[in-house]
Design goal:
The protein has about 150 residues and is mainly α. It has helices spanning about 1-25, 30-40, 45-50, 55-70, 70-90, 95-100, 105-120, 120-135, 140-145.
């Protein structure tokens, strides 16, 4: 009982600190989003992210969801998938290289994430984008391709 009360007080003061930082013109979650995008290869667990934001894991997860309406782990998945998608469109790097650069533990895990999110494998995605955009690989044009918006 006492530990639950202490935990609530710690969370309360952490929220007050986060609000104070935002009022001072700092947004720790926004700053963290930038850091996450720049560090996709790193361990982006809730504990690491909370430490980076100078919050307890519990309070961090609560504030993150409150501000972004998505859990930290889903947000990390989305960042990694988007980075992988861009690399598939813009480079001829191997799937293993892309997976490593985007923070996936293996190309198989990247493949599973792609299938779950987009319903297509990374290799097939690259092939479809290449076919849709023509034989001449032109990444700026391909980025504007509306094929996947249908």
């Amino acid at each position: 009982m006492i530990s639950a009360i202490i935990s609530l007080w710690v969370d309360f003061f952490a929220i007050l600190e986060a609000n104070r930082l935002m009022e001072a013109g700092r947004n720790p979650i926004l700053e963290l989003q930038v850091w996450m995008a720049e560090n996709l290869r790193e361990d982006l667990s809730v504990e690491v992210l909370a430490s980076q934001a100078a919050m307890s894991p519990r309070n961090f997860a609560r504030i993150f969801v409150r501000e972004l309406v998505i859990t930290p782990s889903r947000y990390v998945d989305q960042l990694r998938l988007e980075a992988a998608r861009r690399q598939l469109e813009q480079t001829d790097r191997s799937l293993e290289e892309i997976a490593a650069a985007c923070g996936f533990a293996s190309s198989e895990l990247m493949r599973c994430a792609f299938l779950r999110s987009m319903g297509i494998t990374p290799g097939r995605y690259r092939n479809v984008v290449e076919l849709r955009c023509g034989l001449e690989w032109n990444p700026p044009h391909c980025l504007n391709c509306d094929y996947f918006d249908r």
